[in-house]
From TrEMBL:
Protein name: DUF948 domain-containing protein
Tree of life domain: Bacteria
Keywords assigned by UniProt, alphabetized: Membrane, Transmembrane, Transmembrane helix
Transmembrane portions of the chain: 6-29
A Pfam family this chain is assigned to: DUF948
InterPro entries: UPF0478
């Protein structure tokens, strides 16, 4: 056998191999079309989900920011209220001290001067009558149960 025949046989085997390889590649590509469509559909679905999650995250971020601002405003209001309450406590303490000092002075003055004793007794009786005025008015007007308690009853005018 001549070497040219061997070359033709080798060339034939090479061509048959190339044809088989091309057929294999074509079948491989054809077989990959369906899984590639599924993968593309999955990626599109995943992209939609990611977009939905991003939208939800932005909404939650916006809500969080609004809540943060609202909490800041309310905490400022509460701190003002707390500061006012502290000031009220200090004012009440100062007022109690002033009232105590005035009553101590009145007691001291009334103990040493009989004229002041009469004046203190008169002021005490007046304060007592002012304190018991609503009760006294109810005993004067027995129908006061059915009337408005915001108004005082002075009896019938003639």
């Amino acid at each position: 056998m001549d070497s040219t025949i061997w070359w033709w046989i080798a060339l034939g085997i090479l061509v048959v191999g190339l044809i088989i390889a091309i057929i294999g590649v074509v079948l491989f590509i054809k077989g990959m079309k369906e899984p590639m469509k599924k993968i593309k559909g999955s990626t599109d679905n995943l992209k939609e989900r990611v977009d939905g999650l991003n939208l939800e995250v932005s909404n939650l971020t916006h809500t969080t920011t609004e809540l943060k601002e609202e909490i800041a405003v309310k905490s400022e209001k509460v701190s003002v209220l707390v500061d006012a309450a502290k000031g009220t406590v200090n004012s009440v303490v100062d007022m109690n001290a002033a009232v105590r000092a005035i009553t101590d002075r009145i007691v001291t003055r009334s103990e040493h001067d009989p004229k002041n004793k009469r004046q203190v007794k008169r002021l005490t009786n007046t304060a007592d009558s002012i304190i018991h005025l609503p009760q006294d008015l109810q005993t004067i007007n027995p129908d006061a149960e059915h009337e408005n308690y915001d108004t005082l009853y002075f009896g019938k005018v003639r």
